[in-house]
Structure formats: structure tokens, C-alpha cells
């Protein structure tokens, strides 16, 4: 029998990059994420939006096991969160850089720490490791600051260090908590181009955003939270009214960050167990 007469094999089901099912997260028994469910397909670029305090950061941190679930389920690439170990696939950009304990760290050292999950244990950095770090620094426009202390950088520059740290690990899934906060307009445009290139290469990108800004063309889907509840899942609304106006009144934690050095940094990594 000719193979051309055989029916085509059914397409394999797409395993979501993230699946959240009825996720509840509480602080001091107060639920701040309340029964949220969604799936994010591989290669999607999705924004998490909503007012201050609506639970955006908590939800994204819970997806990575950085805060415990009160109830519900999360899986990453089809693996339940508690069993997920492939952290090299994930680049996380927290809301702010915090490198604890007053340990001196240069920009290059912090960015190179994003490579740890890719490096072979007890081996010195390879040429590929060094190239990945330099490429990441170049992508965020900080090559010329590579040997400076991160403590002397402005908040917006530190934000770019965090993005470079995530890029250096060459992950295929990015989770970024307000990556544009405090970053000046020119560097926001550059970061938008970097994210577009990552997206075109098939990366999955989940971003907490207060506003779409230069990322607007990239964002086809927004999850909107209000008081911990998912109240929207679909095409994002274009900014209008007060939000479209310059100087609108959202509270931005890093609004003046590019103008002053920020607090002492602590490196956050997803828990490994
Ligand atoms: N570590 C914590 N301990 C106790 N409460 C917290 C903690 N972190 C956040 N919260 C509270 O949980 C709620 C949700 O906070 P979260 O930071 O997740 O919201 P958000 O939407 O990301 O806010 P923002 O836009 O201001 O960053 C808020 O009421 C906040 O005060």
C-alpha cells in the first residue's frame, strides 16, 4: 500500500510554556491572587497588566516558584512546578536589582551570573560563555560599563543589567517584571527591538507592564488583573484618556530611577527544589 494513501498523523498537542490553574496566592492569609487560570503557548508574547497592587508581580513570581501557591496548580513546559528543574530555559527579570550583603559586583559579574545554569560545573567560563555575556551587555548598551560597580548605576541602568543577565543565559522563556521601568526612551526602544528579535526567534515572553509603550506592536495578548482576579484575557486596549497623556497618574515604582542610584541589589533566582 502506498504511503500517500495513509491518513496524516494527528498533530502533537502544543504543550503550554506556562499553565496556571485556579492559582491562589496569599500573604499573611490575605489572598492577593484569587483563582487565576490561563495558558501561555510557546512563542507567545503576553503582558500582565492591571492597577498597582492588583497582584501582577505576585502572580509572575508564583509561576516561577518564588512565592508559594496557597492552592491551585502551575506547570512549566508541561512539568508541574515542584518537579521543574530546567531553569536554564527561563530568564527572569525581577522588578529591581538587589545584590545582597554588600558584595562588590561589577556589571559584567552580575550579567555573567545569568550564565550559571548553562555552564559546566567547576569549569572556567568558555569562549561561548564570555561571548554570550558580551552580546547581552551590547544588547542593552552597557558594554562600556562592564567593569563598573553595579552600585554606582542608576535604577534604569540596573534594570538593563537585569535584562542582560537574563539574555546571557540564552533562555527560550523570558519572564520580565516591568522591564521598562525607569529606563529612558532611547533604551526602551532598543529593548523593544531586542524583545522583537527574541520573539521572532520563537522565544516565549511574559511581561508585567504598566503601559505598553514601545512594546505595543509586540503585545497581542494581555492578561488583566484587578484586585487579584483575572478580569481580562485578550487583545490589549490601546492607551486612551489619562493613560495616553504624558505624565498620567499611574504610580511607577521606578519613575525617577534613571536619575539616581537605587538601593543595594540582591540576586533573585528561582528556587531549585
Ligand atoms: N511580600 C509581601 N508581603 C505582604 N504583602 C505583599 C507582599 N508583596 C506584595 N504584597 C501585597 O500584595 C498585593 C499585590 O502586590 P503585587 O506587588 O503583586 O501587585 P502588583 O500588581 O505587581 O503591584 P505594582 O504594580 O505596584 O508592582 C499588594 O496589596 C501588596 O501590597
Which helices and strands appear, and what pairs or packs with what?
Layout: E1 18-27, E2 30-40, E3 45-49, H1 56-63, E4 71-76, E5 79-80, E6 90-93, E7 98-99, H2 107-113, H3 127-139, H4 155-168, E8 173-177, H5 185-200, E9 204-208, E10 221-226, E11 229-234
Parallel strand pairs: 3-9, 3-10, 6-8, 8-9
Antiparallel strand pairs: 1-2, 1-4, 4-5, 10-11
Helix pairs in contact: 2-4, 3-4
Adenosine-5'-triphosphate binds at residues 27, 32, 50, 52-58.
In CATH terms, the superfamily is P-loop containing nucleotide triphosphate hydrolases
Q: Write the element-wise H/E pattern from the N-terminal end onward.
A: EEEHEEEEHHHEHEEE
Low-confidence stretches: 241-273
Tally of strands: 11
| CATH second-level architecture | 3-Layer(aba) Sandwich
How much of the residues is beta strand, in percent? Answer: 15-25%
| Mean pLDDT value | 83
Reading side by side through the largest sheet, how are the strands ordered?
Answer: 6-8-9-3-10-11
User: Count the helices. How many?
Assistant: 5
Which structural class do the helices and strands define? alpha/beta
List cofactors, ions and other ligands: adenosine-5'-triphosphate
Shape annotation: globular
Gyration radius over CA = 19 Å
CATH class assignment: Alpha Beta
> Can you tell me the number of structural domains?
1
Termini separation: 52 Å
Largest sheet: 6 strands, mixed
Helical fraction equals 10-25%
Pfam families: ABC_tran (PF00005)
InterPro entries: AAA+_ATPase, ABC_transporter-like_ATP-bd, ABC_transporter-like_CS, Metal_Ion_Import_ABC, P-loop_NTPase
Domain ABC transporter: 18-252
Protein name: ABC transporter ATP-binding protein
Amino acid at each position: 500500500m502506498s504511503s500517500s494513501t495513509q491518513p496524516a498523523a494527528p498533530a502533537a498537542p502544543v504543550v503550554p510554556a506556562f499553565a496556571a490553574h485556579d492559582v491562589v496566592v496569599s500573604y499573611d492569609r490575605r489572598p492577593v491572587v484569587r483563582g487565576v487560570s490561563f495558558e501561555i503557548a510557546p512563542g507567545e508574547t503576553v503582558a500582565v497588566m492591571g492597577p498597582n497592587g492588583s497582584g501582577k508581580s505576585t502572580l509572575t513570581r508564583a509561576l516561577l516558584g518564588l512565592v508559594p501557591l496557597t492552592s491551585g496548580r502551575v506547570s512549566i513546559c508541561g512539568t508541574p512546578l515542584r518537579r521543574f528543574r530546567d531553569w536554564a530555559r527561563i530568564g527572569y527579570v525581577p522588578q529591581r536589582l538587589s545584590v545582597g550583603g554588600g558584595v562588590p559586583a561589577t556589571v559584567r559579574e552580575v550579567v555573567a551570573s545569568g550564565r550559571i545554569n548553562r555552564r559546566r560545573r567547576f569549569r572556567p567560563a568558555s569562549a561561548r560563555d564570555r561571548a554570550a555575556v558580551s552580546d547581552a551587555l551590547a544588547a542593552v548598551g552597557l558594554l562600556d560599563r562592564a567593569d563598573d560597580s553595579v552600585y554606582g548605576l542608576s535604577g534604569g541602568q540596573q534594570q538593563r543589567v537585569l535584562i542582560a543577565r537574563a539574555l546571557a543565559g540564552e533562555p527560550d522563556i523570558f519572564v520580565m517584571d516591568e522591564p521598562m521601568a525607569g529606563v529612558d526612551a532611547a533604551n526602551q526602544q532598543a529593548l523593544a527591538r531586542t524583545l522583537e528579535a527574541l520573539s521572532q526567534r520563537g522565544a516565549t515572553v511574559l511581561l508585567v507592564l504598566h503601559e505598553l509603550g514601545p512594546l505595543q506592536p509586540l503585545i497581542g495578548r494581555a492578561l488583566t488583573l484587578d484586585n487579584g482576579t483575572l478580569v481580562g484575557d485578550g487583545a490589549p486596549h490601546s492607551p486612551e484618556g489619562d493613560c495616553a497623556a504624558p505624565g498620567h497618574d499611574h504610580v511607577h515604582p521606578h519613575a525617577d530611577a534613571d536619575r539616581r542610584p537605587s538601593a543595594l541589589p540582591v540576586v533573585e533566582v528561582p528556587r531549585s527544589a
